[in-house]
Amino acid sequence: MSKNKSSESVKVVVRCRPLNRKEESSGPVGGIVQMDLRLGQVILRNPRASPSEPQKTFTFDAVYDGNSKQRDLYDESVRPLIDSVLAGFNGTIFAYGQTGTGKTYTMQGAWLDPEKRGVIPNAFDHIFTHISRSQSDKQYLVRASYLEIYREEIRDLLDPNHSSTRGLDLRESPETGVYVQDLTSCVCKSIKEIEEVMNVGNQARVVGATDMNEHSSRSHALFLITVECSQPGPDGRKHIRVGRLNLVDLAGSERQAKTGVHGERLKEAAKINLSLSALGNVISALADGRSGHVPYRDSKLTRLLQDSLGGNAKTVMVATLGPAPAHYDETLTTLRYANRAKNIQNQPKVNEDPKDALLREFQKEIARLKAQLNHRRWRSKQKKEQVDCEDWGRDSDEEMEDEEEAVETETDDYVKLEEQRLEREKEAITEDQFLLVEEKQKLLGDLRKEQEATEQLTAKYKAMESKLLVGGKNIMDHTNEQQKMLEVKRQEIAEQTRKEREIQQQMLVQDEETVELRETFTSLQQEVEAKTKKLKKLYSKLQCIKAEIKDMNDEHVGSRQELEQTQNELTRELKFKYLIIENFIPPEEKNKIMNRLTFDPEEDQWNFQPLVPAQSKFSQMKKRPTSAVGYKRPISQYARVAIAMGAHSRFRAENIMFLELDMCPPNPSSLDCLAEAATNQTPSQENSPTRNRDIHKSSSWCQSSKSIPFSSSNNSLSACPAALAKGQ
Ligand code: ADP
Ligand code: MG
Prior knowledge:
Protein name: Kinesin-like protein
Radius of gyration: 46 Å
GO molecular function: ATP binding; microtubule binding; microtubule motor activity
Family: Belongs to the TRAFAC class myosin-kinesin ATPase superfamily. Kinesin family.
Bound molecules: adenosine-5'-diphosphate, magnesium ion
Oligomer: single chain
Largest sheet: 10 strands, mixed
Subcellular location: Cytoplasm, Cytoskeleton
Pfam families: Kinesin
């Protein structure tokens, strides 16, 4: 991959945990991992190989052995990344390795022991200490989210209902790249608050898991921190920088045993490591640089980490190893994986003034509330003045009234009209006075309401403002100068060590290249010796590479066999399903179903299309069938006869069906009675339901010349006269 100016490679560090008690007691073999901290090299010994076989050596940005401290790893490899996030870059740290090798220990560690606090709690300290020490013209907004990916489903760990709802969806925007839709994000104002968020999420993880170990080694956990910082630029305007930090604790990288797994279990196994194998493919494609297509879309994890791998982010990968000989194969795979990741090039850039910065919205909201508050204060001040004025007005009115009363007593003998006029005026004034008191009370009530609203507004304003962290304010416990100095010194040392290692590595490479140039041979013998030495060196190198090729081949064959096995299992299952479909589902039904199915690559599943497409709903609606041409509704034989006979119009549309229900011959007495009834029938009685209550006649009897086409219906008698007339 071509390097451009702003590109930088993914930093890869390797950490090996100490042998645990069980491993120590299992044999005197010791660890298989050796580390050269100065050179950043890992030397792996194959416990099954002969001692003459050369050991495998890998070089990384930094290596940490079993004696390493959490703080060392943080200061040297993580601190620069968090500083970049605070400056507005995207940053990712992910821990990769076999289950039980210390991924969670590295990322989280033991929170209560300051010596054993992992990357995440140290990052919290770092971020909030940085904010407290920054200049007072800077404003910060820190948000945190926590999610896990389990069986290719994204779960929001801060949502209390996450276990009952279906997984969240991924979306992509040109501004922020790939993001999780509807993910809870909590504004955090202090270390305590962000730790609380982490605890809530961790508890949700535990509750969601039936078997914590199984679950945690099969799920990927992502803690996301967004730090927005607003600072006045040289142009006098406030500029916002947004840094996003992904802290990822991946699932165990070991291969899930697939042998003997069928059906649902097989699918599950395939899904569990889908994200990890997709991650491997993405890393290979990026490291290779030749293949244009990077399969980010193959899994949720790779889509989420799209920016972190080959995109706009600075990335640190911590590969964790176990030193036990029993896990040699897995350790080698992890080292190869990590070695490949070193070649990935990212293009990090500062996210300046993005449209979706929440800080900008908060600032706008605060400014709005502030303006509203000022306006209210000014208004209430004015109202107070108004009320005071009215109080003064009322006093003067009272004085006037007193005066008038005095005038009234002195002029007892005034003319009646004058007295009445004064009386009216007095009433008016009294009324006016009431009005004033009422108005004053109303005004006071309004004032009280206003005051309450103002208090509410002030509280809202303060709450909103408190979400923003202002640089320079002491938001953490007091950190004295000495401590600050100590930290700076520690950083300097870490920086120094890193540089030293880089120089050592460069020197090693150059040494090999220049050794030939520096050598001058005084005699032929000397030259032969030197050349033999070099030949030996090159020969051992060749052996190493040959061994490497053999290993790769073995690994390739192994994974191919595994894939073949999975393929066979899946083919067997497919054949089984086909058998059922071909033999038990009618072909036309099968075709109907197949025509309705569409594949959604976004969701990675087949969906049913609706039966009737939404737009053509109406065009597809069938018309109501007409049963007889020229008639509004279905018409029976009886109605047709009635129409033909010109019977009473009332019965023309009667729909009486002849149903062959009664198969036994009619009783002669009932027939006589029937005939009698029929002859006595007058047109006015035609419809009498009481008259034919006992008549039961099936249509099959209508065929005889004397028969009468009756039915059990109430209206059947209407046919009698016609039928009888026909019969006679
Ligand atoms: P993983 O998350 O990779 O499955 P853990 O982080 O749970 O593994 O580690 C497994 C065990 O090993 C834990 O008991 C942990 O305390 C211990 N451990 C891991 N790394 C170290 C280390 N560097 N130093 C000491 N103990 C460690
Ligand atoms: Mg773990």
